[in-house]
Amino acid sequence: MPSPPLLEVKDLYVRFPTPAGPVNAVAGVSFTVSAGETVAVVGESGSGKSVSSLALLGLLGSGNISAGSVLLRDEELVGAGPERLRQLRGSELAMIFQNPMSSLDPLFTVGDQLVEALRAHRPMSRRAARARAVELLREVGLPDPERRVRAYPHELSGGQQQRVMVAIALTGEPALLIADEPTTALDVTVEAQILELLRTMQREHGTALLLITHDMAVVAETADRVVVMYAGRVVEHGPVAEVLRSPRNPYTRALIDSIPTPATPRDRPMPAIAGSVPTPAEAPSGCRFHPRCPSALERCSEAEPPLYGLEPGRASRCWLHEGAPQASPTTAGEVHHVA
Amino acid sequence: MIGYTLRRLGYGVVVMCLVTVFVFVIMRLVPGDAVSLQLQDTGVSKEAADALRGEFGLDDPVWVQLGEWLAGAVQGDLGTSFYNKEPVIDLFLARVPVTVQLGLLAMLVGTALGLTVGIIAAVTRGSVTDSALRVFAVAFLSVPNFVIALLLLTAFALWFAWSPPLVYAQPTEDFTSWAQQMAIPVFALGTGGMAAVARLTRSSMLESLGSDYIRTVRAKGVRERTVVLKHSLRNSTIAVLTLLGLELATVLGGTVIIERMFGLPGTGQLIYQAVLDRDYPVVVACTIFYAALFVITIILIDLLYALVDPRIRTGKALS
Q1: Which of A1, A106, A210, B87 gives the lowest tally of CB atoms within 10 Å of its CB?
Q2: Could you tell me one molecular function GO term of this UniProt entry (chain B) (predicted)?
Q3: Extents of the domains making up chain B
Q4: What is the interface pTM, i.e. ipTM, of the complex?
Q5: Contact A154 B316 (CB under 8 A)
Q6: In CATH, what is the architecture of B89-309?
Q7: What is the pLDDT of residues A235-290, one digit of tens each?
Q8: How far is A125 from chain B (nearest CA, A)?
């Protein structure tokens, strides 16, 4: 291992209370993010990817982390008090969300919301914070920042609002920026601009990026490594180029096959994975993907496969790899090859 | 913003005109008039009664009476009482301060307590405190204010051998006596509003606390106190402001009963007696006063909306 990872998530379980008893929306998820790296977490809606990221920051509403470990620079965040998590949020850890149109408080100006973030973690005069706010807005590419700093969120477009969200995230110069579907609600052209902005920010500030998305095309453009999630489990992870070139897990393959390309026939329906992600309460027996899997074997409905370590840095959860060494859940990022 | 204000004021004037005409006409449709009520057991001849009606102008058609009254009203003459022949404006001005004090204090107390209870219930949702406060709120919402007033009077008399002073004193002459006399009426009138404000504050704060923008504020690492009292509360005020406008109507209606119960010489007492006596000029003046109070409050609330929410200020509709 070159350097200890910035963030190390180990065997994370997130539990939600339901009328029918608690269910695990995230069940034993492990991954790592190194300083300055971009890791994409992909999966369909309901795979537990957003829940995992919210859990890291202590921003879950009703759910809670029931087991596992989250290490940020060797500091354990699971069980850390709410006050400690508050200190880390907005300073070491920042997050931007899926819906920029509803993510800014409609009653306060963009400037006020930036000033609030700036002053939350360090003593700073209102005047200095105001000046810094304008600077940040310029940095995220908002035109005419001196005027926009006095604008209310509803006076900005969705793309501009997301730029403001990025500016807010940058106020604390975070080591890790979590972006939860940052472009899903935006136009395609704006999406490209926001992704470019995130890449620039990362290059200039050395921020690590944890990118939550359901869009394989975004993963291909942006990430160094990818973690594929399905129904609360990690089913495959590895370097982006390799995973995209030769997906090992049938689910990953199905996700990649559903990206339309110029060669996709126009007269037939778009390729899609039949069915939908099971809710945590109705997770099937055995492998959670087997009811929708084209390569399902008989045993897939009986027992869940472990995460098998494949070539260095890659792992996949599928019986097809039986015989390969199991990936240790504690070092999901750098798979140990046990003899 | 100026256009918005002028438009609201324009609506207010239209409403006031309609109320005036409506009350003027409807009062005269009620059976019995001041003359027959005054003279009913005196054996005065029909001729004498008709002469009195002529003096009051009651034998003219309603629209003639309305015209004459309006002609006087625009010059500041609201007519004279059919009873003691005093100018209505004097009777009325003597009583307005009491009702304004009572209504304003009841609204203030109700709103302040309601907001406090609502915020506490919202941040402790699902806890015993929350449940207790909600039961409390439903109880106060269900029991009419005069019943609460009676219970309070009885309780204080029984357990502390204390009852409020009977004669009203201006706060400027005897503040202690005034405060003692106002305490129970203000509280009794305020409870309904308090309960309603508490329930609405709780639900709108819960809604906003689960919203995306609150998640952003939390992600910034802002203290929870700021999250609740600055962002969530401010976003809940629009709903609460709307409720306060409606609440004022209830409070003003309540003053009529409460003033009578506690012998407070306010417009509520005045209008109550005037309706019984068919003292038309007094009824009309009092009703217009209540309507004006209501219309002005609604306009103020509309202006407060714009102050709180920039989307209304710039003319963009609420989502």
Answers
A1: A1
A2: dipeptide transmembrane transporter activity
A3: 2-73, 89-309
A4: 0.87
A5: yes
A6: Orthogonal Bundle (1.10)
A7: 999 999 999 999 999 999 988 888 877 777 878 777 788 888 888 888 888 899 98
A8: 17
